[in-house]
Amino acid sequence: MIRSLLTIALLGSQALVNAAATKVEKRSIDEIYKAALAEGGVVTLWHGGDEANSRDDLKAAFEQRFPGMTLNVTVDLSKYHDGKLDKQIAEKNVQVDSVILQTLHDYPRWASQGALLDYAPLGWDKIHPKFKNKGNAYHYGMAIIAWIGQWRSDKLPGVEGPVEWEDWVRPEFKDKLVLTYPNDDDAVLFGFDLIMKEFGTEWLDKLLALNPRWVRGTRSPRTILTRNDTDLSPVAPYNISFPSKGRFVSWPQAGAILKDAPHPEGAKLLHSFMLSKEFLEPRGSWTVRQDIAPPKNYPSILEMPGTDPTAFGKWMADRAAVERLRFYLEDRIGTAQGVSPIVDDI
């Protein structure tokens, strides 16, 4: 039901004290490439996600575009990456060059600690103002992510496909729903918050009465649904829907370069590449750039009915409220069961 849309792009706009002028990239991407090769030809990226191979596409595209470069990308849950990075920062032993994470509340803190590089890569000027900070470039949107509903029509013969959130709790879906534990993923938790604020806890009562299967990881429901990809242009019998009455989750995934990155030139090359038209346009998805057309038959993410991509970052900043909701749902649903989705067999 609540699923991740494969897309990439990010962040919010908390004002930070800017101790020094932002370094705006003036070199061409080929000049940055030469500097990155001279530096050693390596870049280490920690990327949020719940499948170990989910950024193999990025690694392949980057290394093909820039022969001689090696992208060491480690995918793990953002809530695990941030704690490990905190430890490296505290010990003054930073070993990662770039982070692209869901934990949007971490970036202002890291910036205030002086841990991030105030650097505007190529393409930064094309990022929508709502997806970057005014006055600095410590962190900014790298990718747009959204949750969508997905179902298989061949598994629901004669049943009208669900669109609105109230459709998903119809009695005919008993024992047929697969959902990510909201108490295990803050973006899913935010989705439940939006739904319950509109439809009340009665909606949750109806959902739980349907005996959904709860899993760890936001890709697991789709994997269970099908091994085939589902995107904004699905092929039968796979279908997607956005609610026309309720709200759904979207946000810009934040990216930043560490000030003490071992390979800053490699990180600059990576960020410039990921924000380039060359990389983003062929993906046919929403992006943080203002000058790239939205997916066919859809408006821009900022004009898409039913969502506000800037809301998630603000919601994430109120950690007390997030934790209250997490424990409320954990009490209703139970603690997340199973090993990390990074190592499970789903």
UniProtKB/TrEMBL annotation:
<protein>
    <recommendedName>
        <fullName>ABC-type Fe3+ transport system</fullName>
    </recommendedName>
</protein>
<keyword id="KW-0732">Signal</keyword>
<feature type="signal peptide">
    <location>
        <begin position="1"/>
        <end position="21"/>
    </location>
</feature>
